[in-house]
Amino acid sequence: MFSILKKEKGNLSIVMLLAVIGMASGLSMAGLVLRDYRGFFNQVERIQTQMLLRGETYRGQAFVTSNPFLTGRIDLPVREINISTPRMNRTYRSTSRIVRARENVLIGDADMGVMTATQATEMDTYKMMTLVETSIGTGFGSHFDDNKTLVRRYGELLLVQSSFSEFMYFSAFDISPAGKNVYFYGEDLVTGKVHSNTDINIKNLYGWPKFMNLVTTAGHVVSYSGGYNKDEVFPGGLIEEYDVYEFPSSAEALRNGGNILRYGTPDKTILYVRSNGGTANGMTGTILSPQRKRVPVTGTGSTVVFPPYALYPGQYAPPRDTLYTNVFSVSDTLWQPVSFTGTRGKGYLVEGSLWIEGTFSGFQTWGCSHDMYLLNDIKLSGTALGQDPISNRNDVVGLISEQSIHIKYGYADPFDTTGARVHPNCGSDSEYPGVEGGGGGIMIYAAMIALGDGGTNMSNYNMPNFKDGVFTFEYMHPHGSTPSINWNYWITPDSVANITYDWIDIHRRVYPAPKTGPTAWPPLIDLPWYNPIWPEQAPYKERGTINIYGAVAQRRRGFVHRSGNDGDYPSNDGIWDIEIDMCGGPISQMPPPDPVFPGLQLFTRNWPGATGSGSGYKKNYNFDHRFFTIQPLFYPEARLQGGKLPMTHGNWKLMNPDQSVL
Length: 662
Fold this sequence. Notes:
7-stranded mixed β-sheet; elongated; mainly beta; 2 domains; 5 helices; 13-stranded mixed β-sheet
């Protein structure tokens, strides 16, 4: 090496070699810098185009919401956005097209499990197609690809009209059927969206309520306990003076796409369904023509005494005189069996009332033109009771009534040949020890909507109206009634007969009774047949917990618990007028002991293990978060006042576009 350096030619060779190496290194570094430079701008352009694609989806959604009568295809105005900095100058161009179709859409995304073509429902769909291109400098060149970059992004978004299943609570009028305020308070932890077309009332009672998802109201939130911390009460967000939702009065989608069941005159028809997964057993009930009944009231002079025979040996007295005779009509129900197969992926609407319970497989929606009664748990095949259905990819239930939805108190079971009377929806508070907030009563895994339209509007919604659709419970104001009694009576001084006496309360007083006056029905004894299994000596007040894993929409907020001595509305002021929720006296008071039968006392009681001082249920309401991305079959679609269509995002596909796209 030293010998080379001592030579002049050797030095020149070294210099030339180093120069070549330096030049190659410089070119390599320049190439790396240029590649990084181009890579940086390419990455920036790709990020920016994706953000613009996302922005275009909301522009398209806003356009569809405000133009509900869009038909066929429309191209939105082209947008060009220039972003210029000292180091970069780019122009982005967005070209968007919207295509509307009324088509069968599989409810749920591709990974919702095995779905068949029958699990589809006809819905308004809008396909939003957007192409975003990039050019260098300001604007786009006049010749093809003059100054365009290689970054082009294309996306397709499916927009589907929203349904009412997206709301944990929806009320067209947040007011009770009695026209009185209803409140959210400390025991209310609401995990899903909430909307009301009127004011939402809150109270600091056992603490403040808490809304974990977005709350919207066309009115305002009104606190009846002074100021509150908005971030603590509404951590999911609050929008007041929001648009008004139009609340439908009929189940149009179910009527158009489902199976209509007709068994006779709707006013005289009951369909009782017990679902068993993908099949169901049922009974059709036909309410027969009323039969006139004549019930004598017996006594001595003007004093009513019933039974008309003495109760004890040696106290024989001749039969009492008939003081007067009650005349009234009673209807019986004729039950006949019916069955359903292949109920997965189908919707049914019965023209009449629907009684329903059971376990459901697949996507099923059941509805009725009259009142619906929940006779027991509404369960999903793939979800254990008390568990969140979020991981259940196969089973979704919708329940739609064109009037109201009631939790049944009791009934004579038509499946039981003995006519056994049952209370299926009562339970102990400790029945589900591993379920937070849960308790015995009833489990409901469904989206429910009560559409009944009693004529309420924004000008009269604070007036009583008991015809509007509500989700509520049956037999809110229980009182005891004298049961049937078998007794050995001395019918002569020398003979005893075992006689069954029924309808004892009707044998002792005027029926039908006037609402007021000396012959009005006693306030602390049940009016005949107000209790669906009348007569009942000791009916139940507190019945446990309503456990919902789903959604509830109703025209008014129905009662799920009553105080038993209403201070806002005369429900318990002593008058019997059931049609307007005036149902005798306070439920905690007892009438005097029976005047004839020794030891017989009428009273009310809580179901064993159910605590409380009123009647009805505690609440354990949980939103089914699957309803953000799926909908029950044929469920009512949401529409804003003025025809605007609130939309839900479906699948969003991003892809590399062909040269000819759009």
